[in-house]
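// run 5 | inverse folding | seed 20
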């Protein structure tokens, strides 16, 4: 009876979510402002373009492209994945993009299915841990065709939170496509996440066709789409920074992932590098707060890790 009651509660929550439609027109307008902001802030020092390519099915995937103006020779490439359930790539990463491109690297930031700012159909197409990962990986195909100066033999994938989760799944499912991955404060274990988040959050997953129900009613997709369940498959170097005061991705998730990596021998081999920051300002967002000591330290270590696999590049 308890299981049936909880399933009904989550189903009702899902119905309420569908009934309370987001303000799509306002989201589209805000996304246009973000597009203009990137051009205004970065356009004088680098190439800034909004591009689009075919995703995992018939959906068109927008993406931001940032690159040095000199495209006469191949340059290392970073696929930078935004976070958030129904999030988008926005100005919170502006200074990071600037630092990466100043190193001489190309950055592409896909707005995978479910992202905010592209209307109701795109928003409703969310497929957490599924086709969204394919959407991100397929950015490589666009680069190969239209940006031949993006060196895909020297490519890494990076992201924070949901973006870190996608980065992990990308290298777990596609070993060999990327030289390395950065997964900071990543979603790491969906069963734990469901148990530590409210019913309305669980309803976002239960309403997606790939999940079809709550964790209690249908646990298989939650396990299969958890990086923690696939530690033995890791063959690509990963750097992960987490915060023990994270109130979004609770530290328990990344402890499970870390312990799985230890058991699989990935820490001992050096494939999985894990660092836990104690009570950094910003908690879940500490890694993008470059004005704080913890944020600067995390970013400095991240840049060194990237340089190890990409080369320092031409400044």
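// decoded
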């Amino acid at each position: 009876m308890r299981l049936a009651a909880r399933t009904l509660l989550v189903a009702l929550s899902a119905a309420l979510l569908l009934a309370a439609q987001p303000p799509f027109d306002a989201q589209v307008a805000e996304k246009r402002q973000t597009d203009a902001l990137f051009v205004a802030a970065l356009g004088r020092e680098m190439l800034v373009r909004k591009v689009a390519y075919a995703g995992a099915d018939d959906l068109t995937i927008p993406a931001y492209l940032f690159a040095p103006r000199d495209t006469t020779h191949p340059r290392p490439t970073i696929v930078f994945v935004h976070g958030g359930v129904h999030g988008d790539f926005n100005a919170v990463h502006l200074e990071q993009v600037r630092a990466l491109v100043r190193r001489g690297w190309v950055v592409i930031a896909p707005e995978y299915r479910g992202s905010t700012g592209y209307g109701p159909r795109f928003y409703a197409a969310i497929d957490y841990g599924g086709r969204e990962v394919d959407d991100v990986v397929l950015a490589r195909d666009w680069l190969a065709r239209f940006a031949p100066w993006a060196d895909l033999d020297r490519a890494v994938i990076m992201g924070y939170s949901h973006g870190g989760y996608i980065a992990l799944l990308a290298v777990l499912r596609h070993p060999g496509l990327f030289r390395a991955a950065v997964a900071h404060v990543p979603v790491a274990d969906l069963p734990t996440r469901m148990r530590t988040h409210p019913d309305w959050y669980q309803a976002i997953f239960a309403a997606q066709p790939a999940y079809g129900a709550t964790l209690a009613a249908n646990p298989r997709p939650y396990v299969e789409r958890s990086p923690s369940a696939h530690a033995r498959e890791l063959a690509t170097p990963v750097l992960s920074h987490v915060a023990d005061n994270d109130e979004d991705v609770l530290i328990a998730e990344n402890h499970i992932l870390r312990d799985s990596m230890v058991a699989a021998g990935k820490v001992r081999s050096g494939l999985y590098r894990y660092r836990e920051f104690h009570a950094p300002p910003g908690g879940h967002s500490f890694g993008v707060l470059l004005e704080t000591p913890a944020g600067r330290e995390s970013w400095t270590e991240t840049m060194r890790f990237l340089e190890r696999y990409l080369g320092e590049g031409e400044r």
